[in-house]
Each structure stands twice: as structure tokens, then as C-alpha cells.
Amino acid sequence: MSNDIERMLAAAADDTDQPLHTDIDDILTRGRRSVRRSRIAIASTSVLTTLAIVGGLTVWQGTLQQGEAPAKTPKSETITVDPKTGRITDNETGIQATLPPPASPLSDAAVLKRCRWSDSEYVQSNKERGSNAYDQAGPINAEWRVLVKSGDQKRLEALFLAPDRSIVSLCSQKDERGEGRSGRISTSILPFPKAMEGAPERRPLVVEAGLQVPAAGVAHVLVSLAGESAPRQALVGPEGYFTLGFPEWEEMRKIDPNSKAWDNYEPTVQRIRGYDANGKRIYDWKYVKVEPPKPTPIPADVKIKTQPQIEPKVVLTKDPENGKPLAVVPFSPLSDEQVRAECKKPDDSFIDGGKGAGDERPYDAGRISPDWQVALKVGSDKRFTALLVSPGQNVLAWCYRAEQGAYDYTRSGVQTDGTFGDPAKDEFSMWAMVPEGVAQIIVDLPTGPVRAAISNGYYLWGTTGGSENFKKVRVRGFDADAKLIYDQKISVDAS
Amino acid sequence: MRARDDAEFTEFAATMIRPLRRTAYLMCGDWHRAEDAAQDALVKVYRRWNRIERREGVKSYAHRAVVTSVLDQSRKPWRRERPDETDEAALVVPDIGGPVDNRLLVIKALAQLAPGQRACVVLRYYNDLSVEETAEILGLSQGGVKSQTSRGLDRLRELLGHTERSAS
Question: What was the ipTM of the complex prediction?
Fold first, then answer.
């Protein structure tokens, strides 16, 4: 009977007459957007990370002293609230703030119901990743306090406070389907192991994330967004928690819309101010970009020093240690010209992506041209990996092409010693330079020992650097007489 | 993710979209919803691509995600499960005759199982997953999977026997 069930299920699920409407690229786009949102908006340290990436650091100008004599407060540090409309005028500029987002018409129970799923998924994700171990508050439930809620019947932006007050859960949904973001942020953990240069004040993560003004008695909050002349009035809840509603903006924005430079970004939220019930400013935070220190450049005339090719007297076909047959990494049948033509596609994207802040040599080497040497190429005509060396002999490009035509690509500038570092010490290796005196190399992959492909002083153990299933591999090098002269474990790119 | 991860994910997604859609269809009886669920599942896989153990792990996670997506869809108020309704698109597929009737009978019968029983039967007897794998995907104990599968099979036999007789 079970076989019958299996057959019936298989027949019922037959989809040969059901065209597929899905475009995998759309899934990629959704996935990327989802990752971007969660990375930027959710993870407790993500805001900080993002800021670090763009080279900026936030500087908190400090909570002003409580109890200052009101009469001494300059007018520019106050706001005027229209008693009839509730609208706020920023007395620093004389500009009227935009209205706060609407309070959500949903009950706390309805808000909880909508947010429960995404929150529990976030908790589960953290659990699986073993991250945010400080978050022990468990998924949101009826014991969590709804701090602030904004939106309409569709959109929702809400903050929940854990019963033990350790965690704030953020729930932001575009519609009832739950698309949006969620996240959980500590109310007490401070970012960075210690105060970083340019960041005089370490603020709890929930403050860094722009969810709370950490000053007692906050009644009004104004948020200034880049590109907007008028500040936005936030919807303020208890204890200084606030929201601008479902965000219609990206957390990071391009400073120059035409630039592709890696550091051409700044946070959209540029300034957050808190005021007490009398309209006196009691908190003022501004984003201030801090330029990162520039690394010492490696001179462009340092050239790659590869080891000369050594022909083995006897080609190893079995592992000398255990007699296991050696798998062979095939050389790609593509011509050098074809490899260069294929790798030019990701190379153009690499160059067009603009220079990073670090080593400029990989960019200064220019685009792939017929002058680039194809030092090593393995794989088939459809799926291959190639190493290309710049005409200046100081930059190496690693180029991988999948069967579907997708690419992975990176360039590296040679170090001052003429090598690309010790693969035994590097975190990720996708290729390596042949050690001195080595004629043949065996790499112990989980699938068995492999004789690496060697050419022009480089070796590869497969078309990709590694696999999710292993992070370190043993590499043995043999001289021309098949004597073991190199034995190291190297960390492969396992991402 | 980096370009290479994207390439690998694309390969995985292209391979898995149809199997996931088929699994989802058995769970919900609606090809459109099934495709939505498969898409949602793959987006979830993408989000955790670097954190999932590949090979067996990623497929297992994808199955879990698609089952969860279907169950989650059914929890949403505008997509309540309607066991007595079948996929309208499937009903109007022309010129296939008998096999379509049988297929729809199976889908109708599956729809009348409790969601947990349905998931167990589908994962065990369509996806050919072990008790252990099914337990992990559904977050159940192995004993729970066995009992739900057993009850689901009994009920399915009962329904199919009944519907087959009715149809004849």
C-alpha cells in the first residue's frame, strides 16, 4: 500500500503540464534585498558594521545636563509646539517639522500577532548561527510591552520591550504578508570592545540603532534625514523610544549618485534630537564621518616571485602514504584567448566598481588585455578557474566561471616579499604559489587525495577554493624525486 | 553573498524550484500557492546560504522552509486552507482525462488530512525522507513523525478508498 501511496503522490505532483513562472533572478533579487535589509536594519551590530564599512563613525554630542536653568537655554536649542495642531517648529532653523507618522490603529494583541512569526524566525536564525548569545529573552509574547506602534491596516512599525527589559524587538512590515524586517537589539550592550578613536561616547546598541533617545523626560523627537530640508517629527513612546514609521528610505544612501566608490555612502539618518515637554533640547546626536587611516601602500614595482617549474622524474599516481589513487585536476581545454575573453566580463565589473580604500594596484593594473598572462587554467570549457597575471607582474586575478555563466572574481596585489602570503596562515585560500623545490603537490580533500594542477609557479586543487564541508586541507609537496619536502595545512575558502 | 555564492545558489535554485513546488503543491493543492511557497523557501535559503551546511543540509533546510511557507500561508487570514476547494487552474487543464481526475482525488484527500499528518506523509512518501529527516524538518520527535504518518496514511487510505468508490 505504501508503494501505491508513493505512486499516487508522485502522479499527483506531476507538474509537466504546469509551466514554471519563476525567474531565478527574481529570487536572487528578493534574497539580496532581504539580506541587505536584515543586515543593515536588523542585526544588533549591523548598524555599526555598516558605518564602519563606509568609514564613518557616529559622534554623540552628549546628553545635555539635566536641570540647567531654563532661562539660559538659547532659543536655537528649543522647539515651539503649536498647541492647536501639535506641529513643531525647529527654532534652530525656523523650519516646521513634518508631521509624525500615524499611530497604528491595531490593538497591541493584533500587533503581536502580526509580528510573532518574523520575530520567532529571527530568534531561530540567531540560535542556528549561535549569534547574539546575550539575547535570552525568548520570542515575543503577550508579556512583552508594545513601546510604540505606527502604521495603518497594512503597514506596521512596532517596538516591543522584553519583560526583563534586556531586549527590544523591532517589527517592520510593509503589509500583512509580513514583508519587511525584524530584529532584536540589546538595551544595554555597548558597541565596540573599547571606545574607538573619534567615538567619545559608547551608547547602547538600541540607541546606536536609532530606536531610543537615551535621555529622561523626552517628549518630542526630531530626526533629520539626508536630502530633506525639514526634520521629521517622530512618534514618541515611553522611555524615549520612537519611530518614524515604516521606513521609505534605505538606511545608507549614496553621497554622490554618480560615484561607485566603496565609501560613497552615508547613513540616511543624519541627526536625532530629543526635547523635553517644555521644548528644550536635551539630546543631540549627529553623524560625523571619520576618515579611516590610510594603509601604507606597497610600491607598484614590487613583482611576483614564483618558483621555477620542476619536472618530476616520476609522476605520482597514488598517495605514497596509503596507496590511494590520486584524482587529477584537469587543465581547461580553453585557449588563453578564450579564458581572457571569459574573464573580461567579471573583470569589467570589478574595474567599473571603482577603487577601494586599500591597495590601489589591483585597479591600477587596468582591465584584462591580451598582455595578461594566463598562468593556470583548470576545469572544463564551461566551468573553469583561471589565474591571470598582470603585465606589470604585480597583480593576480582569480577568475571562476560556473556552468550557468555566473562568475566569481577577485584580484590581489603581491606583497612586498614577492608572494601573496603564507596559505597556512591565511584565512581563505582559493589558490596558492608552489613552494620552493616542489615538483608535485597532493591535496587531501574529503573526497580523497588530489594531485593539484601546477603551472607557472601556481597550483589549484579544484575549480573552487573549497567547500562548505571542509575548511582546512593538508597539502603535501614533493620534490623531483617524489620526496616529501612540504607538509602544511592550509585554510581554504569555505564560504 | 559574493558572486560565486550567487552562482552556486542559482544552480541550486534552478535545480530545486520544481521539486520544492511539487512538495508544496501536495501540501496545499494549489500550483500558484505552491510556486509562491517554493520562491519564499528559496529566498530563505538564500538568506542563510553561507550558514547552512551544503549538500544534504541545504536541501533539508529548503524542504523545511517550503513546508513552513505553506503552513505559514495557510495561517494567513486571506489564505485560509479550504480543504474542499481544489486548484481551479488544475481543474481546467484540458485533454488529460483520467489521470487528472485521479490526481485531483489525491490532492483532495491530502487536503483533508491535518497539516502535520499531511506534511509527514508528503515528506516520507513523496520526498522519500527518513523518519529522522522528517522529524528534523518538522521539528517533531521521531515518535511524533511515526504516529502522524501512520494516522495520515490510514486517513488517506480511507479517503481514497471512499472517494474512489464514490467516483466509480
Answer: 0.81
